[in-house]
Amino acid sequence: MATEGIEGFLVETRNYGATAAFWKSLGFRSVLETEHGSGHWAHPSGGPYVFIVEQQDRELTTYPVLKVADSAAFAPEREPDFAQPFTPTHWGVDQALVRDPDGRIVALEAPLPEDRQADGHHHG
User: Read out DSSP for 81-108?
Assistant: First the structure.
């Protein structure tokens, strides 16, 4: 089993408010905003979400988030270059980071197995 396609995009920013206003002007609506400079934005017409994260410490990145049904059964035709293996997150998913042939990051997110459920915060 590989992936179920693009679920969303992570977008890092220096200014959460300005970036949120930009995506809002493009028709996205806030679904969840954290208290620490991040938030989940979705378009009412559907399609991938945008998760905005304020980042001051390093170069900004943007990457797609692909849905995986089961991290234990993840078996693409070609072995990916893992930057991070599947790891439980504080927002309640198993996340792996893989590199494309040019070194860009792609996130893979799968539901946590029931025996490893975390508390329910979201990205960031």
Answer: EEEEEEEE-TTSEEEEEEE-TTS-EEEE
